[in-house]
Amino acid sequence: MSPLNRCHNILDLRKLAKKRLPAPMFHYLDGGSDDEQSLRNNSDAFNAYHLLPRTLVDVSQVDLSTEILGQKIDWPVILAPTGMSRLFHYRGERAVAAAAQRAGTLYSLSTLSTTSIEDVAALSAGPKMFQIYVHRDRGLTRELMDRCRAARFNALCLTVDVPVAGNRERDFYTGMSMPPRFTIKSLIDIALHPRWVWGHLTQPKLELANLRAHLDAAASTGGSVAEYVSQQFDPSVTWKDAEWMISEWDGPFAIKGILCADDAERAADAGASAIIISNHGGRQLDSVPAPIDLLAEIKNAVGDRLEIILDGGVRRGTHVLKALAQGANACMIGRAYLYGLGAGGEAGVDHALGILREELERGMALMGCTTVAQLTPQHLSRTRHDVSLL
């Protein structure tokens, strides 16, 4: 039996990915910032919500389809933008984009991807969104948007929670900094994963494909990749910049990294099509709440003025059910599919998406719901604990 076939849930895929990936790459994927409280809580917080099913309902036909950012998708789970996916398998973004198309859902490509906008567009005819930052070089921002238009990407996603990089301490210990400074222990661990090494030795050099020309120009003047990328993160970005990008793009536009109702309302006022409630997978500011705990308040604040996508900690179909019942239009997954990528390449991503979709469809039937729209707050109860002061 294939090792993938012995993986019956996303955490099984995580265990297999941990075996198959060198430690620096696995911990870069798996880790968070500071004490990783937000990282752990993103998934744990779902446990505070309980599902309330309806019985004696005909669930012989369950329809998971929905629409997000102007795109019809087969089920309400979309793939988050993740940087440098070729670190986890030599096929990287190509494998993920192909799997997303087969799964009938939207794929998001990162600015910091190791496969270019144009190559992903040529590979996948499925719905696609490009994740972008407001760079210090506004010309670069405009250039990336122009390339996305030419490649017929369907939507743009502005990430707003990275004015500076988070404090990801696991990477300090393994040497997964930028540029990498691997420890002796890390180098030995890499050598002990010959399948991963062979995959990368026999493929083109790993690079930030969307920034290739700019990185070449920086190198010609003595700069490094790390210096160029860090310089492009602009801590002076404001809502005016977001409004400029929304106007410039003039199409479906999501703002990723919203964690409070005030910012959600500002996003609606700015003309965004959607917000993505996200704490960057616990990789930026630690000790912030889990997105699922913020969803109801944000939904109450913005109503139907824009679509809401929940990102953070989704590892089960029941997590998706809980988010949809609170008013999310869809959920976004990152680590869940990357564990599949690290565990088994493209087949592993297929397997991860298959697991989640099967769990979601089964859960819908057990809830007595035949369409996504039928899920409401009445399908949830929340655990409440009385706290006594000592």
Q: What does it look like?
A:
The C terminus is likely disordered. The protein is α/β, with parallel strands linked by helices. 44% of the residues lie in helices and 12% in strands. It has one domain: Aldolase class I (TIM Barrel, Alpha-Beta Barrel), CATH 3.20.20. The strands form 3 sheets. The chain has an 8-stranded parallel β-sheet with strand order 4-11-10-9-8-7-6-5. Strands 1-12 form a two-stranded antiparallel ribbon. It has a two-stranded antiparallel ribbon with strand order 2-3. Helix 13 crosses helix 14.
Topology summary:
Elements: H1 10-20, H2 23-30, H3 37-44, E1 49-51, E2 66-68, E3 71-73, E4 77-79, H4 92-103, E5 107-109, H5 117-123, E6 128-132, H6 138-150, E7 155-159, H7 169-174, H8 184-191, H9 194-201, H10 212-220, H11 225-232, H12 239-249, E8 253-258, H13 261-270, E9 274-277, H14 291-302, E10 307-311, H15 317-325, E11 330-333, H16 335-367, E12 380-382
Parallel strand pairs: 4-11, 5-6, 6-7, 7-8, 8-9, 9-10, 10-11
Antiparallel strand pairs: 1-12, 2-3
Helix pairs in contact: 1-16, 4-16, 13-14, 15-16
